[in-house]
Amino acid sequence: MSHSMLAIDDPKHLNVPSSPLTESQSAQFQAALTTLLLETISTSAWIPHAPHLGNARRSIMVTPKRLDKTLARAADASSIPSNLIITLLPSEMVLWVDPGSVCYRAGSDHAPVVAIWEDPAVQQQRLMQQQIIKQRWSQTQLSQSPPQMVGYMSPSGRSSGLSSASSSPQLSHQQFSLPQRTKVTMKMPASMGSAGNVMVN
């Protein structure tokens, strides 16, 4: 836990502008923030073998309209204006403090998650999990049949995808048996000159 707290003390990880705070203010803010985070962690789940349990409660979130209450409290305890703290952080950010790791995401939900600090054992476990997921995904792709085209049938009568981008869907005679020639009888009105029937083949 102590490693997790120390990892967030260095703001260079967040690529924020140079701080206008004095060294004394910065030290006070970091001390206050560490104390508040420790209080939060002590009342939330902290399970090393299940690090994600309770991480929402331990997270710090900053949005364009809202400064996280933990940061606001730390600023207040350090006699630093909250609006000054906002200028030192990305407009959108989430920071997670979990057993064995501290990471953050700056920007939208699609932005990458960056690890500030990670225990070597946790890092190894994460890499192994990623490898397992990658292998399962590859096996799934190999075992699946080609994509199915709904509404199209192959000449054999079984559903299948198109063989190439230029192929056209085909229907067999067994599926649809259409007559080769169709006769249509049309009644011609007497007003058109010659009454009678017209056969169209």
TrEMBL record:
Q: Which domain of life is it from?
A: Eukaryota
Residues covered by the Anti-proliferative protein domain: 1-109
Q: Which SUPFAM superfamilies match?
A: BTG domain-like
Q: Where is this region: Disordered?
A: 138-182
Q: Which GO terms describe its cellular component?
A: cytoplasm; nucleus
Feature: compositional bias, Low complexity:
154-172
Family annotation (Gene3D superfamilies):
Anti-proliferative protein, N-terminal domain
- Residue spans of biased composition, Polar residues class: 138-147, 173-182
Question: Per the similarity annotation, which family is this?
Answer: Belongs to the BTG family.
Protein name as annotated: Anti-proliferative protein domain-containing protein
- What organism is this sequence from? Chytriomyces confervae
